[in-house]
Design a protein that fits this description.
This protein has helices spanning about 35-50, 70-75, 90-100, 110-125, 135-165, 180-190, 195-200, 200-205, 210-225, 230-260, 265-270, 280-290, 300-305, 330-345, 345-360, 365-385, 390-400, 405-425, 430-440, 445-465; strands at about 1-10, 15-20, 25-35, 55-65, 85-90, 310-315, 315-325. The protein is built from 20 helices and seven strands.
């Protein structure tokens, strides 16, 4: 029995198809179908004809295109014969498949062939993971809409800042850490220097978030400042921007509330057991991860979202370790805020943050370390379906340290001594030999014992802080 592989390259309104067999021979040459009911039924009739032959399974692969693939995916998912299976494929994978195949031209037909060949090579791994259910897929659409609204708000806020800098620069001090709502309501009513100067402080203080003292301070700054008096165009722009940013802010809050009220998944409660992780962050993490069984280990999950440290060494050159930042940036943005929250509100992560700072890390690097640690802990919690327990992480850390035996450390020293002897005889640079000597000048055994002692002390401190 043979397998067929159906590669589908979706475009707006139509899709290109090709079917190949196990030997990567074309069973059906590339053909095009429109995204209509008739052509969907035509595709199903074609597949039924192929199933009448000696076919074990027809694996169908559709490249994710932001939603255009949904109609074809749904049609093939609803096919009653279990021998027809459908999977969404990450476009990045297809891109690398195309580059590996040294393809010089990219057309819809070529893309369909590339998808079919990638499906043939990787179908076992692709179909080993469960597919995202419809409810989760639709929840992701709401989640993505919130991300889009946030981008729009950021763009308008940047434009707003430039307008204020050019016309009422004295107010810039209030928007260094974002645009507060009280300022938007204030400028919506008093949109230029003249209006602010003539207003009564008691009337300004009626705006929520502005005290009488703050009103008097703002008015004093603007009166004596270098701001422009403004005209009808600038007044219109400022008022319009204030209205739009406030409307977007309200819409974002409403969409977040809708998602938190309607997203029913017991795993949300598991993630919320980490003090500092709220409902929306927990939901966002679940939407990004989808199903934790897709990942073989916590390291794979960290690599998928690019929160793992990278270190590159080539010859005599060395590049400092940094966060990878590969994969979906939306997860890192979400987790960055989560990491900041747990560093403030969670004693366990706060202690970890202090320890990283004590090592010489700056603030963002320490937050990055928390992001990596938090991702690993989330992996373990979702895998075991258990709530957060600091002692479990402590035990895992100690167990990891205990795996390195004294014998392995001594063997490392012996190996590096041999490396030094060989390096002296080889035409390597003086810099490389100096580096090896420096590494050997420190007793690895003493360093490792010291590290273990510090780690144990650190975890005991964390336990006491709880």
């Amino acid at each position: 029995m043979k397998n067929y592989f159906l590669g589908i390259d979706v475009s707006k309104g139509y899709a290109d198809f090709v079917i190949i067999d196990d030997a990567k021979r074309e069973v059906r040459k590339t053909f095009k179908l429109m995204d209509t009911a008739d052509d969907h039924q035509g595709l199903l009739r074609m597949i039924k004809l192929d199933l009448k032959g000696e076919v074990n399974c027809i694996y169908c692969g559709v490249e994710s295109t932001g939603g255009y693939e949904n109609n074809w995916f749904r049609t093939l998912s609803d096919f009653k014969d279990q021998r027809v299976r459908i999977v969404r494929i990450n476009p990045v994978r297809i891109h690398h498949q195309s580059r590996a195949g040294l393809q010089r031209t990219v057309t819809d037909k070529v893309a369909a062939n590339t998808i079919a060949h990638y499906l043939s090579d990787n179908h076992e791994d692709l179909f080993a993971n469960p597919q995202l259910d419809i409810a989760m897929a639709n929840a992701r659409k709401v989640y993505n809409m919130v991300a889009t609204l946030n981008k729009q708000k950021t763009q308008l806020s940047n434009q707003f800042e430039k307008i204020i800098y050019s016309n009422i620069p004295e107010l810039i001090t209030y928007i260094r850490n974002g645009v507060p709502n009280w300022l938007l309501h204030f400028l919506k009513k008093y949109s230029n220097k003249d209006a602010i100067s003539k207003a009564r402080p008691s009337n300004i203080a009626k705006i929520k978030g502005i005290t009488l003292d703050k009103a008097q301070t703002i008015q004093s700054k603007v009166k004596t400042g270098i701001g422009a008096p403004g005209d009808i165009y600038i007044n219109h722009i400022i008022k319009s921007l204030c209205s739009k940013i406030l409307a977007l802010d309200k819409q974002i809050k409403d969409e977040k509330k809708f998602l938190t009220d309607n997203f029913k998944d017991k795993r949300v409660n598991i993630l919320e057991s980490i003090k500092g992780i709220g409902s929306y962050t927990a939901i966002g993490v679940l939407i990004e991860i989808e199903d934790v069984s897709r990942f073989a280990s916590a390291s794979h999950l960290c690599s998928y979202f690019g929160v793992h440290p990278t270190f590159k060494e080539s010859g005599d050159g060395k590049i400092k370790s940094r966060m990878s930042k590969k994969g979906r940036s939306s997860y890192r943005s979400l987790l960055y805020m989560g990491a900041r929250n747990v560093a403030i509100h969670n004693p366990y992560f706060k202690s970890f943050y202090i320890a990283q700072r004590a090592k010489g890390m700056h603030h963002n690097a320490a937050i990055g370390a928390i992001m990596n640690k938090l991702t690993r802990i989330i992996f373990g919690m979702l895998k075991s379906e258990n709530t957060f327990d600091p002692q479990v992480d402590q035990q895992n850390q100690i167990r990891s340290l205990s795996k390195i035996t004294n014998q392995e450390i001594e063997q490392t020293v012996i190996t590096q001594k041999k490396e030094l002897e060989q390096a002296i005889m080889a035409p390597v640079s003086k810099r490389k030999i100096t580096k090896i000597k420096k590494e050997l000048s420190v007793s690895f055994l003493a360093v490792e014992e010291s590290a273990r002692s510090k780690a144990l002390s650190h975890y005991k401190h964390i336990k006491m802080s709880e």
